């Protein structure tokens, strides 16, 4: 019983959402329950437009992701209702599409207001960006530090900064090079196949998009375009990962170790919190419990090798994921292209000799 209750929240969400979809599909699309009562439509709409979004918020989004994704879930719920419930039953709720449209317009208006507040801070943000960029050209670190200073505790601001950084890396960074004027830099991707992994994923998305778009378009044009937009976003994300990996080496300064692995995760680690660095001699795979307190600074690879180093911390340190999401880790594992130089530099900076 304890093992069942300890299942991850996303698994519970999948189980409950599947039960809701299956029960509603069975009600309307099979003859198991006989004629469908007129009032059943109200219950189905509550299931798909209220219960599923609430489950999404409680089990998936809360304290993890931006609330803007709740609007996407509600739209998906309406799409499911449109596909599952026969039009003869939905006809009495002709106002529903307009209600959803107005709700989405209000939500978008709120985001535009937040964007306006960010734009009013833009001159200050640019000034802070230029100051930090003159030290080290680590774009994502710089825009995050500037946003934290001038837009503190602003979750929507963090989302906008993340998406701005993603578009910058994906579209405008192909000819840029890294400039490190303060500290020692260490690349971590040259001996891996990380670029091949991302190119394979982009290739798979492109092939899937072409075939799936035409198939979905013959069935439902709206769903086809939603899936196409999601796939384009996925391609931009992987392009951003390629450039971010190339342009953001690990950097050791006199006071901090800056760890940014590609585009999706980073840690700004004070060196006085480093307890010990050592060559890693543990197992290749980490348990679920270990992953909860571990910052894995390695890039994806076709053949995932054991980490080179393990860094133990005196106190758990926060690391950042996309959209301003944060976790804490008490140990770090990583690989670098110049392991001995990295090891000696950490020893020198932390006085572990």
Automatic annotation (TrEMBL):
- Residues in the signal sequence: none
Q: Transmembrane segments in this chain: where?
A: 10-28, 40-60, 67-87, 99-119, 196-216, 222-240
Q: Which UniProt keywords apply?
A: Membrane, Transmembrane, Transmembrane helix
What protein is this chain from?
Beta-carotene 15,15'-monooxygenase
Q: Which organism is it from?
A: Sporosarcina globispora
């Amino acid at each position: 019983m304890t093992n069942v209750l300890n299942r991850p929240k996303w698994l519970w969400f999948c189980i409950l959402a599947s039960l809701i979809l299956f029960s509603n599909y069975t009600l309307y699309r099979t003859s198991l329950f006989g004629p469908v009562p007129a009032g059943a439509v109200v219950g189905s709409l509550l299931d798909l437009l209220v219960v599923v979004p609430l489950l999404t918020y409680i089990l998936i989004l809360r304290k993890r992701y931006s609330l803007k994704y709740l609007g996407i879930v509600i739209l998906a719920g309406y799409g499911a209702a449109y596909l599952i419930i026969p039009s003869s039953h939905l006809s009495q709720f002709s106002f529903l599409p307009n209600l959803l449209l107005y709700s989405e317009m209000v939500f978008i208006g709120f985001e535009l207001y937040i964007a306006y507040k960010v734009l009013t801070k833009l001159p200050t943000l640019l000034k802070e960006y230029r100051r930090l960029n003159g030290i080290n050209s680590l774009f994502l670190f710089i825009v995050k530090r500037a946003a934290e200073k001038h837009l503190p505790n602003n979750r929507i601001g963090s989302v906008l900064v993340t998406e701005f950084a993603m578009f910058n890396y994906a579209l405008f960074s192909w000819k840029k090079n890294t400039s490190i004027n303060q500290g020692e830099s260490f690349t971590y991707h040259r001996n891996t196949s990380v670029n091949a992994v991302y190119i394979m994923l982009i290739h798979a998305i492109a092939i899937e998009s072409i075939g799936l778009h035409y198939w979905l378009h013959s069935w439902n044009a709206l769903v086809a375009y939603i899936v196409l937009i999601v796939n384009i976003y996925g391609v931009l994300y992987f392009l951003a990962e390629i450039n971010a990996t190339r342009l953001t080496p690990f950097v050791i300064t006199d006071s901090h170790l800056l760890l940014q692995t590609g585009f999706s995760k980073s840690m700004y680690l004070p060196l006085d919190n480093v307890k010990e660095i050592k060559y890693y001699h543990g197992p290749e795979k980490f348990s679920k419990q270990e992953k909860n307190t571990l910052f894995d600074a390695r890039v994806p690879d076709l053949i995932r090798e054991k980490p080179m180093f393990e860094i133990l911390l005196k106190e758990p340190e926060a690391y950042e994921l996309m959209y301003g999401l944060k976790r804490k880790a008490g140990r770090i594992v990583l690989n670098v292209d110049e392991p001995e130089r990295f090891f000696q530099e950490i020893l020198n900076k932390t006085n572990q000799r």
